[in-house]
Amino acid sequence: MFFGFGAYGLWGLLPLFFVLLMPAGSVEIVANRIVWSVVFCVLIITVTRGWNKIGTAVRNARVLGPLAIAGVLIVVNWLTYVFAVTHGNAIEASLGYFINPLVSVLLGVIVLKEKLRPLQWAAVGVGFVAVVVLTISYGKLPWIALVLAFSFGLYGFVKNRVGGRVDAITSLSVETAVLTPFAIAAMVVMAVLGQATLTGLGAGHFWLMVSSGIVTAVPLLFFGASARRLPMTTIGLLQYVAPLLQFVVAIVFLGEHMGLDRWIGFGIVWLALVILTADSLVHYRHASRLRRAAA
């Protein structure tokens, strides 16, 4: 539970960190996040002597391919999220992660042809109503929330295809290594154009940018440690900690405004999550009773 709360708590406080990195733009922040994550991963892998795991993952096309796709999906997610936070849309970003569980259920139907239980259908239907209400509230489709929800939902789906064949640090290392050449190219281009802030705003800003690698890797390692020890239902409940913290941070610390119409839209989303969570708990308890009876 400590590792789980640590992971989702750190993810929930990320908006405060990204605000500290301004005036760096979203592309520069994400490029540095990728490069310094790789450096941090190399240090961990060297200390833990995990290079054989990296070699095994890279040589296996069924592992390398999905991880490369996962890398593309997560960089889309990171770019969108950092853009949202640095442009005053942290509330909409939190909405994306509230919607994410509904997207995961929807992907199960579309991609895996899973059959939903009645309460799951109800949750998805209520979620759709919430998107309509929020579209009216924003005066446009809440694209930031939808991009975050679908990119992270697809990321989780792709990672699930890899299964338990790689651990968290190996997975992060391969995903970011695939993206590193593009990240370095972006940093060089911004430096040539005079748009880079990495070395131009003092030592404090430089080390904050470098620490983005640690900020990226540590919660992921915490998550991996908790996921190996906790039931999936507990992990499912813990995942709401991050968007809830992001939501509070956006209102209390970043001063973003929530009108009545948006409160209504968010309320409908939360209703959908309550329905989905209740269904998951009931299904888990029923499955547990069946397992005990069989034993």
Automatic annotation (TrEMBL):
Domain EamA intervals: 2-135, 144-277
InterPro entries linked to this entry: EamA_dom, EmrE-like, RarD
GO cellular component: plasma membrane
Protein keywords: Cell membrane, Membrane, Transmembrane, Transmembrane helix, Transport
TM spans (from-to): 7-27, 33-51, 63-83, 95-112, 119-136, 142-158, 178-198, 204-225, 237-257, 263-282
Compartments where found: Cell membrane
Membrane topology label: Multi-pass membrane protein
Source taxon at top rank: Bacteria
Keyword Glycosyltransferase: no
Family per similarity comment: Belongs to the EamA transporter family.
NCBIfam families the record matches: rarD
Protein name: EamA family transporter RarD
Biological source species: Arthrobacter livingstonensis
